[in-house]
Write a structure and sequence with these properties.
The chain is an all-alpha fold. Helices cover 73% and strands 0% of the residues.
Length: 419
């Protein structure tokens, strides 16, 4: 038998691997994930870099297999070692965040640089972000701008957006150039750019103020599930700004933003369900939303949860739970919550009665110049509750409260003077 040339043999052995990758991609398109996993695994184990990237993505996304960041990084690393730009970029993403591997910003930068040298758009943008934010390196805005410019010229709309944002809000402001770049990215459908352009029109920043245009761009971004734009669009409907006022539409968009985890939207939505504004009045639903935000350490929501427990609104009445949430809100700087907590200690509701503790809580708030607390401190001095009775001190605190506009304190002082 005539011997085949070596190059023919090499080509012949490569064909099955290429077929595995092509078959894997076809399986992926038809959502036959077990087939895709099998085909990519065969090709990846044979050393095909594209298959290694595809297999890494399956493990990273949990597509057809349980999500496994460790295995994902291992396959991305193998592809990166072969000079595959996608593999380098994906591996860099994981080293930057520390998912599935020990965080190593320097290694991430090195991999992004290798991919960027191959004109990989996402790597150029990520590297630009690193220098813009100073992640493991000194902030270098000119270098960041250069990387964004290169990515933008290659068709990276995210880079165009970043460039525009730098010109709008960076140290070297150029509102004309920044607006043009943001508009370019927005017109290419980038939701973040659409939201920023909407804010520009809403505030008249770099453009003539135009609330209707703001709504138009917010809506484009909101329909692409951009949560901040959903919130801003809801605000426009709630206020009738650039669009006819509509509580129901406002509630719809607040809910969409809230479902994506935006605390500001969750807090407003809770208030709507509490009031029955644009949605049916549902105290239990309001409580659930307040609780979500309160668990993110929002003091206003913590106060609302405390009040709900105290009054039994949307949840079973529980004075001890109310006291805990008042304490959390007070620790977070909510003065009304601290005053409410003081009252619980004064009455012994939900906590052991402790007049001295109540006085000290009120005194702490009064020392910030809060008129209501100043009046209460004066009252406790006058009555000798939680502190030795001291009528002179009481008058002094009443005067401070009156000077800060407290009506009850003014009445106290007027009554004293009348006698």
């Amino acid at each position: 038998m005539k011997q085949l040339p070596l190059c023919w043999l090499l080509a012949a052995t490569a064909l099955p691997v290429q077929a595995d990758v092509a078959q894997g991609l076809q399986c992926l398109q038809t959502k036959n994930y077990s087939c895709a996993l099998q085909e990519f695994t065969t090709a990846a184990e044979a050393g095909d870099a594209k298959a290694q990237v595809e297999l890494g993505e399956l493990y990273a996304d949990g597509t057809g297999v349980p999500s496994d960041f460790v295995k994902a990084v291992q396959w991305f690393d193998k592809a990166a070692a072969q000079g595959n730009a996608d593999g380098q970029n994906f591996a860099a993403d994981f080293y930057l965040t520390g998912n599935g591997v020990s965080q190593n910003v320097n290694k991430a930068i090195a991999l992004y640089e290798k991919a960027s040298a191959q004109n990989h758009i996402k790597a150029l943008i990520s590297l630009g972000n690193i220098y813009m934010q100073g992640m493991g390196v000194a902030v270098d805005l000119p270098k960041a701008r250069g990387l964004f410019e290169k990515a933008s010229a290659l068709g990276g709309h995210g880079a165009t957006y970043n460039l525009g944002y730098l010109y709008l809000y960076g140290p070297d402001k150029d509102l004309v150039k920044g607006t043009a770049l943001i508009r370019q990215a927005a017109e290419h459908g980038l939701p973040l750019a659409q939201g920023v352009l909407g804010e520009q029109y809403r505030n008249g920043y770099g453009v003539t103020r135009d609330p209707a245009q703001a709504v138009l761009w917010f809506e484009k971004a909101a329909k692409q599930q951009e949560p901040q734009s959903q919130l801003l669009l809801a605000d426009c409907y709630a206020r009738g700004e650039g669009v006819k006022q509509n509580d129901q539409q406002a509630a719809i968009w607040y809910e969409k933003a809230a479902q994506q985890g935006l605390p500001e939207a969750q807090l407003v939505l809770a208030g709507l369900y509490e009031q029955g504004k644009g949605v049916p009045k549902q105290p239990a639903t309001a409580f659930d939303w307040y609780l979500k935000v309160a668990n993110k350490r929002d003091r206003q929501a913590q106060m609302k949860v405390a009040e709900a427990y105290f009054h039994g609104q949307g949840v079973a009445k529980d004075a001890a739970a109310a006291a805990r949430w008042y304490q959390l809100a007070a620790d977070n700087g909510h003065r009304e919550a601290q005053m409410a907590l003081a009252e619980l200690y004064r009455q012994g509701v939900g906590v052991p009665a402790n007049a001295e503790r109540a006085f000290n809580l009120l005194l702490e708030v009064a020392s910030t110049g809060y008129a209501k607390a100043e009046y209460q401190v004066g009252l406790m001095y006058e009555q000798g509750v939680g502190v030795l009775q001291d009528l002179v001190a009481a008058q002094q605190w009443y005067q401070r409260a009156a000077d800060h506009g407290d009506a009850a304190a003014k009445l106290k002082l007027a009554a004293t003077q009348a006698h």
